[in-house]
What we know:
Blueprint: H1 2-14, H2 23-32, H3 37-40, H4 48-51, H5 55-73, E1 78-84, E2 90-94, E3 104-106, H6 107-130, H7 136-159, H8 183-208, H9 212-217, H10 219-236, H11 240-262, H12 277-295, H13 297-315, H14 325-339, H15 350-357, H16 379-412, H17 414-429, H18 439-460
Parallel strand pairs: 1-3
Antiparallel strand pairs: 1-2
Amino acid sequence: MYLQTIILVLFAVWSLGGRMEGAITWIAALSWSSLLAFVLCPRRLAVFQKIWGSWQSYLPLLAWLILIFWLLLAPFNAQWRVITGLDGSVSLEPLVYFSGLPAALVEARCREYGLLLSGLMVQAMVLWHFLERSDLRPLLTVIAWNSIIAAAVGVFFKLAAAEKILGLAEPVTGSFFASFRYHNHWTAFALLSLGQCLSLGAYWYRRGQRNVDVRRKRPDLIWFSGLLLLSLTLPLTAARAGVLFLVLFWLGLACWFLVGGRRASNTADLTAPRRYWTILIPCFAIVMVIFSIWGARQGLLPEWRQTRTQLEQVQNQKYEDLDHPRTDSWGDCWRMLQDSPVWGWGPGSHLYLYQLYAREEYRYESGVVKHIKEFAHNDLMQFLAELGAVGLLLLLLPPAMLFLRYSHGLWRSAQGLALFFPCVLILMLASFEFPFSNPAVLTLYFVQATLAFKYACNAGRGRWA
């Protein structure tokens, strides 16, 4: 279980963020291989005997099992067939399908993304039920080291002005970083990685308060240095969202230390930081915020000017001058949902759905769309259109119930909270970007959120996490 998760994360990150040809299939296969835990860890099967004793335990599991079954069967009820012409043009031919049942717009693409999403749900469930408490920190350590190495490689190639991804692969656009083809995908990955380094740094700092040998070696400084390195990568990407969410991360961290400082007088509370950290961390956060803006000023200046121009146009009510393609895509997703509100159109179907729903101003006179959008620049709207209301409810029900059940444990666990906070930031980013379209980010998100809830579960039982 431990080794399988490491292989999954490493492959997802270094296969161009899961965008290499065939990488999605391999990530899905690696995720589904987590089922080997049933064979390798038979003694853990006793856990399932307790699940059915409480609705808080079996309802989340049942919700995801239904969704997995749905995602696997939907491609067999395809609505359209993709036809590629001799000139390379793509058209869709309607098929006979069973209405009222879960269906997929196009069989091949929906099967690929359905296997990926269902595989990651299986991975998360197996991690939750089979991962030993003693394996939590070693697993997190390997994942965090991988993130630090990716950040160092990205900084090297960025300073070397490399024109190819990792010096090998041709980029889709010029806005790539490390092994990721799009800078905002790196933003999401870096935010998750910041939580990993913060979690491990907090653990070793607290261990050092109890153990003199640990305090002398100061392993916490290694992870706080990794935290700094990952923070420096976000301004280098010249992404507005990267700088914005870096600011939010450090401000959130500063607020946590300020709140924790009020509890520092209670020596029995092991998650509360020392008093001097409550002064140093907020000051350091302010420095990081200023440095992020200053360091990204050259690359961000054109985008900031564009943002300021757009704000002025809104203030002057000149809406006709605004650049609407992104927000129009969100409206297109809403129209997609209205035509299939219950079951949606199947995962990964936006690539072909957009060709059916694109507005006239984005088409040539022949009716062909000018630019095919694989993603909607809004993961929340895209998931709603592709999975429908029922599918999205089934997807969100287990994490929502875990949060309600272990929210107190999250506040008691410094490590769990450090892992969970970036997950919340990614959801905010997904409201106007598409981080979950990157398989590596999606994979790491499922794994990290599961680890955060594991720490919260341990802390909720009164254990030191």
